[in-house]
Each structure stands twice: as C-alpha cells, then as structure tokens.
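Q: what does this look like with adenosine monophosphate bound?
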Amino acid sequence: MSEPIAPLAPGSTIGILGSGQLGRMLALAAARLGLRAHVYDPAAANSPAGQICDQATTAPWEDTEALSAFAAQVDVITYEFENIPTATLDLLGAARPIRPGRRALEVSQDRLVEKRFLQDLGLATAPFAALDGPADLEAALAKAGAPGILKTRRFGYDGKGQARLAEAAEAAAALESLQGAPAILEGFVDFAFEVSVIGARGLDGAVACFDPGENIHRDGILRSTRVPARLSTAQRADAVLLTGKILNALDYVGVMGVELFVTPAGLVVNEIAPRVHNSGHWTQNGCTICQFEQHIRAVAGWPLGDGSRHSDVEMENLIGDDMDKLPAIQAEPGAALHLYGKAETRDGRKMGHVNRIIASG
Ligand code: AMP
C-alpha cells in the first residue's frame, strides 16, 4: 500500500483498533484537530472509546465483512493495543495504511522477538532465554540466571502471564503456572528505578521525544509517573537517543512507549509498546502537545508538534478501589481528572488517572 503524501484534511477519519481508554483519549485528540474517529472492537458498544467517537463497529477480529466495511470508511488505521491478529492486519493493510506499521507489531507482540531486535540494535536488555517447555529449563536457567521472571512470549500485559522466581528451585512450578505457553526467562535486573520515554516519529521521519518520566509499579501495574525523572543529563540524552534508534529502525510512524530500567551500568530496555502509553498520560497537562495529539498528528501525516514539558507533573493511576478517593479528588481544585467511562469498578482495572502539577525545585 503506497503512503499518501498529503496530510489528512480536517474531516478525515482515523480508524482505531481497540476501544479502551487509550482509544478514547486518541479519539478526543482527533476531535480537537477536526478529525473523526471510528473505533473497531469486539466490544466497542458503550466502551470507553465507543462512548465518545463518531462511529463504532462492534464485530469480531475475524469478521472479514465488518473489517472491509470499516476500512472503506476510514482514511488511515491505527491501534491502541498490540495483540491484533495477523490475519486482521493483512486484510486491513491491503485497503488502508496502518500506522505504526506491521514490523512494530511483530516485534512487540512477542517478547523473544522484541529482545532479539533490541540486542541487534546494540541496546542492553535483561539476560534472557527462550523456554518452550520443561526440557529447556536447565539451559534457560544457566543462560538467564535466577532470581528471574518467567514471562509468556505473547499476550502479557500489566504483570499478567508472569511468574517471579526467587531461586532456581521454583522454576518448574512457575513454568507450570503458565500452562505450557511459550515463554522466556528473564534474569532479574537490579535497577535503581524505572523510567520511560514516550517517543514520536512523523511520516516525514522527524523524531521527537517527551521528557522521560519516572515510573512506580505495584504488582506489575503502573501506579504513578513523575516528571522530571531523577536522571543525569547524560542518562536523559541516552534515553532519548536509544528511543530514536528504535523508532528509526522500525521506520515507525506514531507514538511509542519505551520502558527502561536505570542501573549503575546504564539503561536497560525492558519493553517497547507500539502505541500511546500509560506512562505518557502526564503529557496531557504538562505539555502543549500531549502524546495523544502527537500520535494523531503522526498517523494523519501532519508535522509533529512541540511536546516540550512546561511543568513538573505527577500522574496517579486510579485502579480498582482507588475510585473510593474520587470525592476527595473532585474537591481538589488543581487535580486534572481523566475518567475513562467504565461502568464497573473491578480489582486491578484502570478506571482513570489524575495529573497534578507539582511545584518545581
Ligand atoms: P513488564 O510486563 O515486562 O513490563 O513487567 C512489569 C514490571 O515488572 C516492570 O515494570 C518491572 O517493575 C518488573 N520487571 C519486569 N521484568 C523485570 C526484570 N527482568 N527484572 C526486574 N524487574 C522486572
């Protein structure tokens, strides 16, 4: 599919695969730019994105008729999550440009492919070994070491599909808990703290990165992000440069999240997400152009905007019964509240987030 050269005109339609909160915030950003959004998801009706976008198609990923009709109604296609079936992408990609492209999805859908890709770029990762079954266990432990984390190669998110091993003796049971799914064993990285870079690359190849944010996770789920991160000037430059390297290697168009461990020996790449990212939500209130607008600009073929940070910000996720704090947050005049429109609060479910500008110095 050849790429249209001209930027999409206002009134054009961005197709979004997936209808969660990231799709919702992408659709809101598209609306601000005079663009329309059409989401496609097996559960689009009344979803966070479905509630607010111009059009929503509720149909399975395998429904070729619905997919073709969707493609015919949109000008470009993007996505808010990475586990889209390959056959779906083949069908859609034949009709419309998909941005970011296939390569980014292939790399990020499989932790083993992702780690090899990063290593080939000369970037540091956790030591790792592929694990297809109990027979590989001994060799994997010898290569990746223990303590470590067993992760399914595919379909993991927010700490799901993972088992931690304090010592090698726990490995067999941990592997069993993954129920035979192909996995990788990662050696545990002894990091000082975690940061992420939200990077963007335009259709013209221009690259722009937001200031790295410092992330706190609990139970494998992001709880908060703070900017600026406690990085030296050299570390900050490193983080941004390696993100640019990844974006260029993938000939990427759009916004990407790159999660990093900060260690005394340098930055170690944990994973990449080929989409807008939870750790970039602070940009909504800390930058003139937020990550959602930056992504829409990129996929629509517009020039990237200026994402420089004008304030120090702390983003706090509202997960599960964090929603009990809602009355207090509503009463806080400076709390920029972003709720996702999810009717039911569940344990571990991301319901919204709050951005607070913090006094610098
Ligand atoms: P992931 O789903 O791979 O992003 O992992 C979720 C969280 O688990 C990360 O943000 C880290 O806090 C932790 N984690 C994952 N992999 C490792 C590792 N190899 N060493 C240390 N901590 C890790």
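The chain has a mean pLDDT of 94. DSSP finds eleven helices and 17 strands in the chain.
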